[in-house]
Amino acid sequence: MPRRIPGRRECLIGLMLTLGLGSVAAAQDTTGKARPDTASKRTVAKTKAHSTIRIPVKKKEAAGVVALPPKDTVAPTPVPVPVAPDTTIKADTMVKPDTMTKPDTMTKIDTAVIRPADTTTAAPVVEPPVPRAPRRQFGAFYVGLASGTSVPSGDIHNGYNPGFNITVPIGWDSRSMPLGVRLDISYDRLRGRTTFRSNGSTTALVTAGPGGTNYATGSPASGTTAPGYTAPTATTGATSTGTSSGYNGYAIATGTDATLASAMLDAKLRLPLLGSHSSTSIYVVGGGGLHYFLNYDKSLALTNPAAEQQKFAALHAATTAAVQSGLPYSAANYSSSGYTAITRPGANAGVGMQWGLRGADLFVEGRYVTIFTKDRSTNYWPVILGVTLR
After folding, report:
1. DSSP characters for 2-33?
2. Cβ-contact 248, 235 below 8 angstroms
3. pLDDT over 70 percentage in the chain
């Protein structure tokens, strides 16, 4: 192996060591004791040179030669040596859980400190809807108010003008079928005329046999002050030929309004115009009810004596006597005990149209009403416009 040649730095360091060793040997006296080298101390004290680099010295190098550390050397990172696990240690299977310690059930949770969980960050839990049993749609009840006019028809048209009508409909409509039921409570008032429509006079001779005419006119009878009319051929105020379907007597236009209250129960059939579930429909009604005449003896019994003539025979006789004598009719000539008002059944049928709104229906309706008064029926037409609320 070739010998390494010392460098300049190594030679300088060796020279300094040699000079130091020589000065130490010269300082010894003849007795063999070393004298203190004061000059050397002063020099060392002045210089105080220290090396910041530790120079390792290898034993194999030649004497007086010191190897310098290489530049920019980095100490190697120690590699960890894996240690095999100790498989000789066994787990302690003899340790048993402490079953003697019982949980403290007496400690209460301070609910005042516990705050509700923050639900702003967590997504809400959506529970599936609970299926409900289908509800049966029984139908729709409604109540309303209507008003309009009542037009007299038949015999009473001669002595009365159209009046007014007020009706309160109360009903029920099925949702599954176009059927319904309606109760109408109504009030009608027919305006009395001061003269008869047929002759323009306050009196008229009524000749009504079986299937006979309504109000007839004839020549004036001798001894009567009722111009233009013949005297009755039968007993005054009684039925002619002894039948209940004929009457000869006088009628008087009193100018008194005829009033009646009615309660009619009808069936209703709807005919939708825009589909089966449309709220706009045409409908028909029909049924029957009761009609109460409030002042029959002062109105219809005088202007239409062919109706209820048997019950009001005394009233008709007093009326005829007054006409024949030329005196005005006076209620003092007639005892009205028990006959001031009457109640009679009747029937009706009509047609209407309704428009559905939010929770309400507008309707317009016209119907024909006939009341089963004796001998001659009493008829009129109510035409009304109203609203019902569901």
Report:
1. PPPPP-HHHHHHHHHHHHHHHHHHHTB-TTSP
2. no
3. 53
Question: Between 302 and 91, whose confidence is greater?
Answer: 302
pLDDT in tens, 144-161: 999 999 999 998 999 999
Which whole number is the average pLDDT over 46-50? 54
Query: What domains, with CATH codes, occur in the chain?
Result: 1-29+55-69 (no CATH), 138-194+258-295+341-390 (2.40.160.20)
- What's the pTM value of the predicted model, to 2 decimals? 0.59
Question: 166: helix, coil or strand?
Answer: strand
Hey, is 53 helix, strand or coil? coil
The SS3 call for residue 332 is: helix
Which amino acid is it at 301?
A
Place of tokens 């310690």: 101
Separation of alpha carbons 297 and 32, rounded Å: 181
Question: 241-296 pLDDT, tens per residue?
Answer: 334 456 777 888 889 999 999 999 999 999 988 766 667 899 999 999 999 999 89
Tell me the C-alpha distance between 372 and 308, whole Å.
Answer: 10
Two tokens, residue 293:
């005449």
Q: How far is CA 357 from CA 155, 235, 278, 327, in A?
A: 41, 61, 11, 59
How far apart are the C-alpha atoms of 172 and 181, rounded to whole Å?
5
